[in-house]
Give the backbone structure.
Amino acid sequence: MVPFLDLQKVNQSFQPGLGKAVARVIESGWFIRGEEGRRFEEAYAAFTGTAHCVGVGNGFDALRLIFRAWLLQGAMREDDEVIVPANTYIASILAVTENRLKPVLVEPLLNTFAIDPGRIEEKITSRTKAILVVHLYGRNAMHPEIKRIADHYHLKLVEDNAQAAGCYCGDRRTGSLGDAAAHSFFPTKNLGALGDGGAVTMHDDTLASMIRTLGNYGSEKKGLHDLPGVNSRLDDVQAAVLSLKLGRLDEDNRRRRQAALTYLSGIENPAVTLPQAESSETIGENVWHLFVVRCGRRNALQKHLREAGIETLIHYPIPPHKQKVYASMNAGSLPITEQIHQEVLSLPLTPVMRETDLQQVAEAVNRFRA
Ligand SMILES: *Cc1c(COP(=O)(O)O)cnc(C)c1O
């Protein structure tokens, strides 16, 4: 049996350090916005190469608080438009609509799953205020063309880095490439906590202090509430866990890359399209949060693998614009997005998988007859 993700094994590989980190917080008696939180924020800002990291409750809050801060600052207004990839996880789009902004969906490229830079400019109107780039499946999606468009039209550039912790883009990391970036430390992400967690990284001082205030009931000084805030804070237990795991993130991502190479060289089946390998182009970097193949008979492939004892998942079975919550959204025709959602299948890939497991998966995929 090859599980999709053996989180027990992943976390076991950090012991006894994890237990010690949690014990340290218990002994400190300080659980919210304490020393551990501050230490992690400093470390993660340095890691991403940004001036500020503000810990928040989860990745979704990171995204929605970025937009909320810009609304409060007057950088955008209700009904303004945000360009987003159509094939993202729904959180990216909910963060936009939650703030009464309008998501404008753009098709991805079939070979990289990243937003198609060539289709952004045609969607820009006088109400467009931001582009949200999602580094989906762990691949850097910040094409130089996107940065050029954002600069040219004076648009805010946001990164959804929930799936790409530690990814490089040239000599910089994702999370430092735009005006603000949202990070998720959901347990299954490349940098995963033992519960919910998230962060915003950014270069701008004013934005950082506003997001910190917003996440703390709008209060900067104890007892004074200046902004319509929420409760969204990264707790110290999670921060201590994340500080420990951050020390091994680059190594874990190297192991993921190694596992991806095993699949890329070992899987050969005309019915299965492999994800594009990394290339020397600026856009090619990947920390392989997910290894996503495409197959015209995806459900049959999934069944075949299940029968071979291999667990796979679909990221994601239904695109956001086809979800009930967005039934009234007039998204237009999105054939590439719909094809992707019908064809994708995620194979098991973790930093703790054995080479023999990877071989077993590759051989089972090769045995599939469409
Ligand atoms: C996981 C994820 C989020 C949300 O993160 P949470 O911590 O679960 O709120 C947002 N965007 C993408 C692309 C994600 O994968």
